[in-house]
Amino acid sequence: MKALFFLYDGYVDWEISPLTYMLNVSDIEVHTIGISEVVTHAGNFKVKVDRNIEAVDPADYEMIIIPGGEPSPFDKDERLLNLLKGFDEQGKGIAAICGGPTFLAAADVLRERKYSTSIDDNPEYAHYFNEKYMSEADVTVCENLITAEGNAYIEFAIAVGKELNIFEDREDELETVLFFKNQLRG
Q1: CA 50 to CA 37: how far, in whole Å?
Q2: Is 13 in contact with 42 (CB distance < 8 Å)?
Q3: Checking DSSP bridges between strand 63-66 and strand 51-52, what pairing results, if any?
Q4: What is the mean pLDDT of the segment spanning 79-90?
Q5: Nearest Cα to 8, choosing from 86, 91, 108, 76?
């Protein structure tokens, strides 16, 4: 199985760090893509992506994952929007946290599906969202979409992990939550 992360300048790395760790210790093959070859995340580290966005075929992946961050100007990039539409048309998993659901809304992937986000009240992006479908949950799973508020990054990671079947059983899932919430101390 393969998962794809879309990285962009200003993405919030800590919102996906637990998830990237979980996937890398599982049997999921992880690739990164971007609009440019090198992106700078919110912590100012530069990251070289594995592939350019044009080199990706949704048929090769089970899921695309989008961290939060400032969506502009990427929310208008047709390459990204078309890629997200392709994942959705093929029924592939799409997971986005914090500001990431803005890309799903801009690509008209949210349509009339429940979603969670941390950026819907920003006037620059509010027009993308239909408040009627905004969930009150921190993490929302609706059909092939997983969306989350930014502070629910552990819960987001668990929801994505469950969708990709990385946990042996419910006990493994709960132990992972306790590990990341620092609750396993003796």
Answers
A1: 8
A2: yes
A3: unpaired
A4: 97
A5: 76
